[in-house]
Design brief:
about 375 residues, alpha/beta, eight-stranded parallel sheet, 15 helices, 12 strands
Length: about 375
Protein backbone atom coordinates (compact mmCIF):
# COMPACT_ATOMS: atom_id res chain seq x y z
CA UNK A 1 0.00 0.00 0.00
CA UNK A 2 1.41 3.41 -0.99
CA UNK A 3 0.69 6.78 0.55
CA UNK A 4 -1.82 8.85 -1.40
CA UNK A 5 -3.38 12.28 -1.02
CA UNK A 6 -6.66 10.57 -0.19
CA UNK A 7 -5.20 8.34 2.47
CA UNK A 8 -1.80 9.42 3.82
CA UNK A 9 0.02 7.07 6.13
CA UNK A 10 -0.72 7.57 9.83
CA UNK A 11 1.52 9.45 12.22
CA UNK A 12 0.43 8.74 15.80
CA UNK A 13 0.37 5.32 17.41
CA UNK A 14 -3.40 5.58 17.81
CA UNK A 15 -3.83 6.26 14.09
CA UNK A 16 -1.68 3.28 13.13
CA UNK A 17 -3.66 1.08 15.52
CA UNK A 18 -6.99 2.28 14.14
CA UNK A 19 -5.93 1.69 10.54
CA UNK A 20 -4.57 -1.77 11.42
CA UNK A 21 -7.91 -2.64 13.01
CA UNK A 22 -9.54 -1.75 9.71
CA UNK A 23 -7.33 -3.95 7.52
CA UNK A 24 -6.93 -7.03 9.73
CA UNK A 25 -9.50 -9.66 10.57
CA UNK A 26 -10.64 -9.63 14.20
CA UNK A 27 -8.65 -12.73 15.20
CA UNK A 28 -5.24 -11.48 14.05
CA UNK A 29 -5.86 -7.90 15.21
CA UNK A 30 -6.91 -8.97 18.70
CA UNK A 31 -3.98 -11.38 18.91
CA UNK A 32 -1.61 -8.46 18.25
CA UNK A 33 -3.40 -5.78 20.25
CA UNK A 34 -4.61 -7.83 23.18
CA UNK A 35 -3.11 -8.69 26.52
CA UNK A 36 -3.63 -10.89 29.53
CA UNK A 37 -6.92 -10.89 31.40
CA UNK A 38 -8.60 -7.51 31.68
CA UNK A 39 -5.47 -5.93 30.11
CA UNK A 40 -4.61 -3.88 33.18
CA UNK A 41 -0.91 -4.43 32.50
CA UNK A 42 -1.15 -2.87 29.04
CA UNK A 43 -2.80 0.20 30.55
CA UNK A 44 -0.30 0.37 33.39
CA UNK A 45 2.61 0.37 30.95
CA UNK A 46 1.34 3.62 29.45
CA UNK A 47 0.42 5.11 32.83
CA UNK A 48 3.98 4.52 33.99
CA UNK A 49 5.37 6.66 31.17
CA UNK A 50 2.77 9.35 31.82
CA UNK A 51 3.70 9.44 35.51
CA UNK A 52 7.12 10.90 34.68
CA UNK A 53 7.46 14.53 33.57
CA UNK A 54 10.38 16.03 31.66
CA UNK A 55 12.06 19.22 32.94
CA UNK A 56 14.10 20.59 30.00
CA UNK A 57 17.39 22.43 30.27
CA UNK A 58 17.69 25.78 28.43
CA UNK A 59 20.43 27.74 26.65
CA UNK A 60 22.47 24.77 25.59
CA UNK A 61 23.92 24.44 22.11
CA UNK A 62 21.86 21.62 20.62
CA UNK A 63 22.64 22.39 16.99
CA UNK A 64 24.16 18.90 16.72
CA UNK A 65 22.96 15.84 18.58
CA UNK A 66 24.25 12.31 18.95
CA UNK A 67 21.73 9.54 19.69
CA UNK A 68 24.07 6.65 18.88
CA UNK A 69 24.43 3.71 21.21
CA UNK A 70 26.95 0.86 21.29
CA UNK A 71 25.95 -2.65 22.34
CA UNK A 72 28.19 -5.72 22.21
CA UNK A 73 30.69 -4.04 19.93
CA UNK A 74 28.17 -2.68 17.42
CA UNK A 75 27.12 0.96 17.15
CA UNK A 76 23.54 1.81 16.19
CA UNK A 77 22.08 5.18 15.13
CA UNK A 78 19.71 5.37 18.10
CA UNK A 79 18.89 3.48 21.31
CA UNK A 80 15.97 1.78 19.56
CA UNK A 81 15.55 -1.84 18.43
CA UNK A 82 12.63 -3.69 16.92
CA UNK A 83 11.31 -6.12 19.51
CA UNK A 84 10.69 -9.77 18.69
CA UNK A 85 7.08 -10.21 17.58
CA UNK A 86 5.85 -13.64 16.65
CA UNK A 87 4.07 -14.83 13.48
CA UNK A 88 4.21 -11.53 11.61
CA UNK A 89 2.65 -13.28 8.63
CA UNK A 90 -0.75 -12.77 10.27
CA UNK A 91 -0.23 -9.00 9.89
CA UNK A 92 1.11 -8.95 6.32
CA UNK A 93 2.00 -11.57 3.68
CA UNK A 94 5.67 -10.53 3.72
CA UNK A 95 5.80 -10.86 7.50
CA UNK A 96 9.26 -10.62 9.03
CA UNK A 97 10.87 -10.01 5.64
CA UNK A 98 9.19 -6.62 5.35
CA UNK A 99 9.99 -5.61 8.93
CA UNK A 100 13.59 -6.74 8.62
CA UNK A 101 14.16 -4.89 5.36
CA UNK A 102 12.74 -1.68 6.82
CA UNK A 103 14.98 -1.97 9.87
CA UNK A 104 18.03 -2.76 7.74
CA UNK A 105 17.46 0.31 5.57
CA UNK A 106 17.70 2.52 8.66
CA UNK A 107 20.42 0.62 10.53
CA UNK A 108 18.06 -0.27 13.39
CA UNK A 109 18.52 -3.80 14.77
CA UNK A 110 15.72 -6.25 14.05
CA UNK A 111 15.00 -9.06 16.52
CA UNK A 112 13.43 -12.12 14.92
CA UNK A 113 11.21 -14.38 17.01
CA UNK A 114 11.78 -18.10 17.29
CA UNK A 115 8.14 -18.46 16.22
CA UNK A 116 8.42 -16.42 13.04
CA UNK A 117 6.49 -16.85 9.82
CA UNK A 118 9.73 -16.95 7.80
CA UNK A 119 12.87 -19.00 8.52
CA UNK A 120 15.66 -17.13 10.26
CA UNK A 121 18.05 -17.74 7.36
CA UNK A 122 15.65 -16.19 4.84
CA UNK A 123 15.27 -13.10 7.01
CA UNK A 124 19.03 -12.86 7.46
CA UNK A 125 19.56 -13.00 3.69
CA UNK A 126 17.07 -10.15 3.21
CA UNK A 127 19.02 -8.00 5.69
CA UNK A 128 22.49 -8.42 4.23
CA UNK A 129 25.02 -7.19 6.78
CA UNK A 130 22.52 -5.13 8.77
CA UNK A 131 22.36 -5.77 12.55
CA UNK A 132 19.99 -8.46 13.77
CA UNK A 133 19.31 -10.37 16.97
CA UNK A 134 17.67 -13.75 17.53
CA UNK A 135 14.95 -14.12 20.15
CA UNK A 136 15.04 -17.56 21.72
CA UNK A 137 11.95 -19.31 23.01
CA UNK A 138 13.66 -22.24 24.73
CA UNK A 139 12.13 -25.55 23.51
CA UNK A 140 11.95 -28.45 25.94
CA UNK A 141 13.86 -30.59 23.41
CA UNK A 142 17.56 -29.83 24.08
CA UNK A 143 18.77 -31.00 20.68
CA UNK A 144 16.29 -28.73 18.86
CA UNK A 145 17.20 -25.84 21.15
CA UNK A 146 20.89 -26.31 20.38
CA UNK A 147 20.20 -26.52 16.66
CA UNK A 148 18.27 -23.23 16.68
CA UNK A 149 21.13 -21.48 18.46
CA UNK A 150 23.71 -22.84 16.01
CA UNK A 151 21.60 -21.76 13.04
CA UNK A 152 21.20 -18.22 14.40
CA UNK A 153 24.94 -17.83 14.88
CA UNK A 154 25.69 -19.24 11.43
CA UNK A 155 23.18 -16.84 9.85
CA UNK A 156 24.89 -13.75 11.25
CA UNK A 157 22.68 -12.87 14.20
CA UNK A 158 24.83 -11.06 16.73
CA UNK A 159 22.97 -11.60 20.02
CA UNK A 160 20.44 -13.97 21.55
CA UNK A 161 17.42 -12.63 23.43
CA UNK A 162 16.23 -15.36 25.79
CA UNK A 163 12.56 -14.81 26.62
CA UNK A 164 11.89 -16.00 30.17
CA UNK A 165 8.36 -14.78 30.80
CA UNK A 166 6.41 -17.34 28.77
CA UNK A 167 6.75 -20.63 30.67
CA UNK A 168 3.14 -21.24 29.62
CA UNK A 169 0.67 -19.31 27.50
CA UNK A 170 -0.97 -16.32 29.20
CA UNK A 171 -4.74 -16.05 29.77
CA UNK A 172 -5.73 -13.85 26.82
CA UNK A 173 -9.45 -13.29 26.81
CA UNK A 174 -9.64 -11.84 23.31
CA UNK A 175 -8.09 -14.98 21.83
CA UNK A 176 -10.37 -17.22 23.87
CA UNK A 177 -13.42 -15.23 22.80
CA UNK A 178 -12.35 -15.37 19.15
CA UNK A 179 -11.31 -19.04 19.37
CA UNK A 180 -8.09 -17.86 17.72
CA UNK A 181 -4.79 -19.68 18.11
CA UNK A 182 -2.62 -19.32 15.01
CA UNK A 183 -0.19 -21.99 16.20
CA UNK A 184 -2.89 -24.64 15.85
CA UNK A 185 -2.87 -23.90 12.11
CA UNK A 186 0.89 -24.09 11.89
CA UNK A 187 1.48 -20.34 11.81
CA UNK A 188 4.82 -19.31 13.25
CA UNK A 189 6.60 -22.66 13.04
CA UNK A 190 8.84 -21.87 10.06
CA UNK A 191 12.03 -22.18 12.12
CA UNK A 192 10.99 -25.60 13.34
CA UNK A 193 9.88 -27.22 10.09
CA UNK A 194 13.13 -26.04 8.46
CA UNK A 195 15.27 -27.36 11.31
CA UNK A 196 17.09 -30.63 10.53
CA UNK A 197 16.90 -31.90 14.11
CA UNK A 198 13.18 -31.17 14.37
CA UNK A 199 12.53 -32.82 11.01
CA UNK A 200 14.45 -35.92 12.08
CA UNK A 201 11.88 -36.49 14.83
CA UNK A 202 9.01 -36.77 12.33
CA UNK A 203 7.97 -39.99 10.62
CA UNK A 204 7.18 -38.02 7.49
CA UNK A 205 8.48 -34.64 6.30
CA UNK A 206 6.27 -31.68 7.29
CA UNK A 207 5.34 -31.24 3.63
CA UNK A 208 3.70 -34.67 3.71
CA UNK A 209 2.14 -34.52 7.19
CA UNK A 210 1.63 -30.95 8.32
CA UNK A 211 -0.58 -31.90 11.26
CA UNK A 212 2.12 -34.14 12.73
CA UNK A 213 4.60 -31.26 12.51
CA UNK A 214 2.16 -28.95 14.30
CA UNK A 215 1.64 -31.54 17.02
CA UNK A 216 5.37 -32.03 17.53
CA UNK A 217 5.92 -28.28 17.74
CA UNK A 218 3.15 -28.01 20.32
CA UNK A 219 4.70 -30.75 22.42
CA UNK A 220 8.07 -29.01 22.71
CA UNK A 221 7.41 -25.27 22.54
CA UNK A 222 6.74 -24.53 26.22
CA UNK A 223 9.39 -25.26 28.84
CA UNK A 224 8.02 -24.46 32.33
CA UNK A 225 10.76 -26.50 33.98
CA UNK A 226 13.56 -24.05 33.13
CA UNK A 227 15.65 -22.75 36.05
CA UNK A 228 18.77 -20.66 36.54
CA UNK A 229 20.77 -23.90 36.50
CA UNK A 230 19.97 -24.31 32.80
CA UNK A 231 21.72 -21.13 31.63
CA UNK A 232 25.15 -22.77 31.05
CA UNK A 233 23.46 -24.60 28.17
CA UNK A 234 23.56 -21.33 26.22
CA UNK A 235 27.32 -20.98 26.60
CA UNK A 236 27.84 -24.54 25.45
CA UNK A 237 25.93 -24.03 22.22
CA UNK A 238 26.64 -20.48 21.09
CA UNK A 239 29.39 -17.90 21.31
CA UNK A 240 26.89 -15.06 20.96
CA UNK A 241 26.14 -12.74 23.88
CA UNK A 242 22.77 -13.44 25.48
CA UNK A 243 20.25 -11.15 27.14
CA UNK A 244 17.56 -12.33 29.54
CA UNK A 245 14.20 -10.81 28.64
CA UNK A 246 11.33 -10.56 31.10
CA UNK A 247 13.24 -9.49 34.21
CA UNK A 248 11.05 -7.49 36.63
CA UNK A 249 12.42 -8.47 40.04
CA UNK A 250 15.61 -6.72 41.27
CA UNK A 251 16.64 -10.05 42.82
CA UNK A 252 16.36 -11.71 39.41
CA UNK A 253 18.50 -8.95 37.91
CA UNK A 254 21.26 -9.77 40.39
CA UNK A 255 20.91 -13.47 39.64
CA UNK A 256 21.19 -12.70 35.93
CA UNK A 257 24.52 -10.97 36.52
CA UNK A 258 25.75 -13.77 38.76
CA UNK A 259 24.83 -16.39 36.16
CA UNK A 260 26.77 -14.68 33.40
CA UNK A 261 24.08 -12.94 31.36
CA UNK A 262 25.48 -10.34 28.98
CA UNK A 263 22.42 -8.14 29.29
CA UNK A 264 18.91 -7.78 30.71
CA UNK A 265 15.68 -6.65 29.09
CA UNK A 266 13.19 -5.31 31.62
CA UNK A 267 9.85 -6.34 30.15
CA UNK A 268 6.39 -7.61 30.99
CA UNK A 269 5.88 -9.04 27.49
CA UNK A 270 3.83 -6.02 26.48
CA UNK A 271 1.19 -6.94 29.05
CA UNK A 272 0.45 -10.26 27.34
CA UNK A 273 1.29 -12.71 30.13
CA UNK A 274 0.12 -11.55 33.58
CA UNK A 275 -2.83 -9.26 34.26
CA UNK A 276 -2.17 -6.66 36.95
CA UNK A 277 1.59 -6.98 36.56
CA UNK A 278 3.99 -4.20 37.43
CA UNK A 279 4.88 -1.83 34.58
CA UNK A 280 8.35 -2.37 33.18
CA UNK A 281 9.23 1.33 33.50
CA UNK A 282 8.21 1.38 37.16
CA UNK A 283 10.80 -1.23 38.14
CA UNK A 284 13.52 -0.05 35.74
CA UNK A 285 15.21 2.33 38.25
CA UNK A 286 15.41 -0.37 40.93
CA UNK A 287 16.96 -2.82 38.49
CA UNK A 288 19.43 -0.20 37.27
CA UNK A 289 20.48 0.39 40.88
CA UNK A 290 21.00 -3.33 41.43
CA UNK A 291 22.95 -3.94 38.21
CA UNK A 292 25.20 -0.88 38.72
CA UNK A 293 26.45 -0.80 35.15
CA UNK A 294 27.89 -4.30 35.13
CA UNK A 295 25.84 -5.29 32.06
CA UNK A 296 23.53 -3.32 29.74
CA UNK A 297 19.89 -3.01 30.80
CA UNK A 298 17.32 -2.54 28.05
CA UNK A 299 13.56 -2.23 28.41
CA UNK A 300 10.35 -2.63 26.46
CA UNK A 301 6.59 -2.60 27.08
CA UNK A 302 4.72 0.62 26.41
CA UNK A 303 7.26 2.63 24.38
CA UNK A 304 5.37 4.76 21.85
CA UNK A 305 7.23 8.00 21.10
CA UNK A 306 10.45 9.94 21.38
CA UNK A 307 9.61 11.28 24.84
CA UNK A 308 9.16 7.69 26.06
CA UNK A 309 12.62 6.82 24.78
CA UNK A 310 14.07 9.86 26.55
CA UNK A 311 12.38 8.87 29.83
CA UNK A 312 13.60 5.28 29.69
CA UNK A 313 17.19 6.30 28.92
CA UNK A 314 17.11 8.98 31.62
CA UNK A 315 16.02 6.31 34.11
CA UNK A 316 19.04 4.21 33.18
CA UNK A 317 18.15 2.02 30.22
CA UNK A 318 20.81 1.57 27.56
CA UNK A 319 18.19 1.17 24.83
CA UNK A 320 14.51 0.36 24.29
CA UNK A 321 12.60 -2.02 22.07
CA UNK A 322 9.34 -1.21 20.29
CA UNK A 323 6.72 -3.79 19.35
CA UNK A 324 3.12 -2.93 18.59
CA UNK A 325 3.93 0.38 16.84
CA UNK A 326 5.86 -1.29 14.04
CA UNK A 327 3.58 -4.31 13.68
CA UNK A 328 0.69 -1.92 13.07
CA UNK A 329 2.83 -0.22 10.45
CA UNK A 330 3.44 -3.61 8.88
CA UNK A 331 -0.28 -4.38 8.80
CA UNK A 332 -1.18 -1.04 7.22
CA UNK A 333 1.56 -0.65 4.62
CA UNK A 334 4.05 -3.51 4.75
CA UNK A 335 7.71 -2.56 4.57
CA UNK A 336 6.88 1.07 3.88
CA UNK A 337 4.70 1.18 6.97
CA UNK A 338 7.40 -0.24 9.24
CA UNK A 339 9.95 2.15 7.80
CA UNK A 340 7.66 5.13 8.37
CA UNK A 341 7.05 4.13 12.00
CA UNK A 342 10.81 3.90 12.62
CA UNK A 343 11.58 7.15 10.79
CA UNK A 344 8.93 9.01 12.76
CA UNK A 345 10.26 7.67 16.04
CA UNK A 346 13.86 8.59 15.17
CA UNK A 347 12.80 12.12 14.18
CA UNK A 348 10.69 12.49 17.31
CA UNK A 349 13.65 11.38 19.43
CA UNK A 350 16.05 13.92 17.91
CA UNK A 351 13.56 16.79 18.16
CA UNK A 352 12.78 15.92 21.77
CA UNK A 353 16.48 15.78 22.62
CA UNK A 354 16.98 19.26 21.15
CA UNK A 355 13.98 20.73 22.94
CA UNK A 356 15.16 19.24 26.22
CA UNK A 357 18.67 20.68 25.89
CA UNK A 358 20.20 17.23 25.42
CA UNK A 359 23.10 16.80 23.00
CA UNK A 360 23.94 13.15 23.58
CA UNK A 361 22.57 10.13 25.39
CA UNK A 362 25.40 10.46 27.90
CA UNK A 363 23.74 13.63 29.21
CA UNK A 364 20.51 11.83 30.05
CA UNK A 365 19.94 11.04 33.72
CA UNK A 366 17.21 11.26 36.34
CA UNK A 367 17.78 14.99 36.84
CA UNK A 368 15.80 15.54 33.63
CA UNK A 369 12.68 13.95 35.13
CA UNK A 370 10.21 14.59 37.90
CA UNK A 371 7.55 12.17 39.16
CA UNK A 372 3.94 13.24 38.97
Amino acid sequence: MNETKEQPLPVSFEEWESRARGVLAKGPFDYIAGGAGAEETIRRNREAFRSWRIQPFMLRDVSTRDARVTLFGQTFPAPILLAPLSIQGIAHPQGELASARAAAALGVPFTISTVSSRPLEEVAAAMGRAPRWFQFFWPNAPDVAASLLRRAEAAGYSAVVVTLDLPVYGWRERDVRNAYNPFLKGEGIANFVTDPVFRSKLKKPPEEDWNAAIALFGSMFFHPGLTWRDLPFLRRHTRLPFLLKGILQPRDAELAVQHGADGIIVSNHGGRQVDGEVAALDVLPDIIDIVRGRIPVLMDSGVRGGADVIKAIALGATAVLIGRPYIYGLAVAGEEGVRRVIENLLTDLHLTMANCGIRSLAELNRSLLTRR
